[in-house]
Write a structure and sequence with these properties.
The protein is an alpha+beta fold and 594 residues long. The strands form six sheets. Strands 6-9-10-24-23-22-19-12 form an eight-stranded mixed sheet, sandwiched between helices. A five-stranded mixed barrel has the order 1-2-3-5-4. 28% of the residues lie in helices and 24% in strands. The longest helix is centred in the N-terminal third of the chain and has 23 residues.
């Protein structure tokens, strides 16, 4: 028998009335009614209300105990009065009449309250994370995370996958984000790197003859913090499969996501079969390769309209002649919106660093015309062409941006979200998954103007590999894909390039000669030379999946012990200084800035 408890604090109900029990937990809340003292006792599982009368010898001592003191209580289960039943908790029909108690753990004065989810500064929350984690909302988020990971493992095994572990200490990679380096004591002057992802290792698992691999993999990248990315480390569901094409990967991940999101959320899934959107189409229609398909607003390219002689909007016409593009968001049936609605969108665009968003609304009096600040610059014929091209109707409005393609895409992607939120068009009670496919193999660096890989350098190019035109690298597409949900990128993936000669040619495009590849990717290129199967995979982010299912906007709310924005662990005081002896063992010397 457990001496600390016969039951947990979520377990007792009216079937236990008149039974003597023992509970242990934290004092979550106290209510002193003079002759009666009520204590809400909390453990990992829930709450139980306990009560002690003033004539009990333990009353005064219990009354003085501060919240979050850990106690063990002994007592009898009794029925609550009908008017005091609390239907919001499982133990709400009963309470415990305390006969005796014991203090198991004393507490100092609390730096933040535990019984409420009141917002506190990040510094306080992270310094006292062990207290923050006692709070109901975040405690439940962490339990949800555990359940999701457990369910993923079960689902992957059902789908025929085996979980293998790949190394944590490995070699530094010249591609990707900044590495975390670990000095080697036994190999002075040399360093390991913590893996940014198990990319090369999971491909080596396939080359080793294993067919379906997965891992809940820790990944380490020395990057700045973001709302959806922890600085330093994160976890991903790493998946790789042999003898597969792109569709085979999609089929597995779609089954997993649909089952997972149906199990852990009551929100509806808009597409059981996820739409596939080419990369170029995503940038055109949504301004982003992370489209939120809950948002019905679309973007249209109407550059050619400003080549017409009967369009007199000279500012845009001059920009178009110099190479700019014009794109527009169409909002349905917004003619009755007040002027302030449109002006606020224009003002918001200026706050985003743009020159604003031009706008007009299609109306019909004796003829079709455009109402708004720039409406007078359009002829009826030009408006008819716009209506035909965008499938617009009388009463619809247009928000226009003109400039360089990337600038316009960025602005209208943000504007699409802003306008939809203002019009309350987004169904918050749904999940909309999609695949973004057909990524370009290469892209041009905006700063250096050099060709670089756009996505994953180990990806397989599309088309007949014997006829690829490497003199036109920007036209080569790859079997690379992203899975997106509600505008959140959950993962990138690809069918891998398993042909060494082709890999040399692709790396040559970005400036790596054969010896460079042999040196920097020696393990991979060597393994591929000994009979590699066609293979591919993906690695959905665990943290982002949990964020979506928990309805959280910040990764801190679903991570047990996160760092702050400066990649510091305030609770454990990391990173910290090390001793001179430790540095000497590692053959390191710290050179301080003057």
């Amino acid at each position: 028998m457990n001496k600390y408890r016969t039951h947990n604090c979520d377990e007792l109900n009216k079937n236990h009335i008149d039974k003597n029990i023992v509970l242990s937990g934290w004092i979550n809340k106290k209510r002193d009614h003079g002759n009666l003292l009520f204590i809400d006792l909390r453990d990992n599982y829930g709450l139980t209300q306990c009560v002690i009368e003033k004539n009990n010898k333990n009353f005064n001592e219990l009354e003085k105990l501060p919240l979050e003191t850990v106690i063990k209580i002994s007592g009898k289960v009794i029925k609550r009065n009908k008017e005091t039943v609390n239907s919001s908790i499982n133990t709400g029909e009963i309470e415990i009449s305390i006969s005796s108690f014991e203090v198991l753990g004393h507490t100092k004065e609390l730096p933040l309250p535990v019984f409420s989810d009141q917002e506190y500064s990040e510094e306080i929350r992270l310094k006292y994370r062990f207290l923050d984690l006692r709070r109901k909302k975040i405690h439940q988020n962490i339990i949800l995370r555990s359940k999701i990971i457990s369910s993923i493992r079960t689902e992957m095994e059902k789908l025929g996958f085996r979980e293998f572990q790949t190394p944590i200490l490995t070699s530094s990679s010249p591609e990707g984000a900044r590495d975390f380096l670990v000095p080697s004591r036994l190999n002075p002057g040399k360093f390991y790197a913590l893996p940014q992802a198990p990319q090369q290792f999971k491909q080596l698992v396939m080359i080793s003859g294993f067919d379906k691999y997965f891992q809940i993999a820790p990944c380490f990248r020395d990057e700045d913090a973001r709302a959806d990315r922890s600085p330093g480390e994160f976890y991903q569901l790493d998946v790789e499969m042999s003898f597969v094409e792109q569709e085979n990967v999609f089929e597995v991940i779609e089954k997993l996501m649909v089952n997972l999101f149906k199990k852990f959320s009551n929100k509806k899934i808009l597409f059981d079969k996820f739409p596939k959107i080419p990369y170029s189409e995503a940038l055109l229609k949504y301004g982003s390769d992370k489209p939120d398909l809950r948002n019905p607003l679309l973007i249209y390219d109407i550059t050619n309209i400003f080549e017409r002689e009967d369009v007199k909007f000279e500012i845009f016409k001059k920009l178009v002649k110099s190479g700019s593009i014009v794109r527009s968001i169409v909002t349905k049936n917004t003619k009755d919106k007040p002027r302030s609605f449109f002006d606020n969108i224009d003002k918001w665009a200026k706050e985003e660093g743009a020159s604003g968003l031009a706008y007009f609304t299609i109306e019909k009096e004796n003829k079709i015309l455009a109402k708004g600040p720039i409406g007078k610059f359009f002829s009826e014929e030009s408006l008819k062409e716009i209506i035909k091209y965008t499938d617009a109707d009388i009463g619809d409005s247009f928000f226009l941006a003109c400039g360089k393609q990337k600038d316009v895409e960025r602005l209208l992607s943000l504007a699409r979200k802003k306008i939809a939120e203002d019009l309350k068009l987004i169904d918050e009670n749904s999940f909309a998954f999609c695949w973004v496919v057909d990524y370009p193999m290469f892209e041009k660096d905006e700063i250096t103007n050099k060709i670089k890989f756009s996505h994953n350098p180990f990806s397989m190019p599309q088309g007949d590999i014997k006829k690829l035109d490497f003199s036109k690298p920007l036209e080569i597409k790859a079997y690379q894909y992203d899975i997106v949900c509600n505008g959140v990128e959950l993962s990138s993936g690809a069918i891998r390039n398993h042909i060494p000669d082709l890999m040399y040619k692709l790396f040559n495009v970005v400036g790596y000669n054969k010896s460079d590849v042999d040196k920097k990717f020696s393990g991979m290129i060597n393994a591929l030379s000994y009979g590699a199967p066609p293979h591919g995979g993906i690695a959905p982010g665990i943290d982002r999946i949990v964020m979506l299912l928990a309805g959280e906007k910040n990764i801190r709310e679903i991570t047990m012990f996160p760092m702050n924005q400066n990649a510091q662990d305030l609770m454990m005081n990391a990173p910290n200084d090390v001793t001179a002896e430790q540095l000497k063992e590692l053959n390191l010397l710290i050179k301080k800035n003057k």
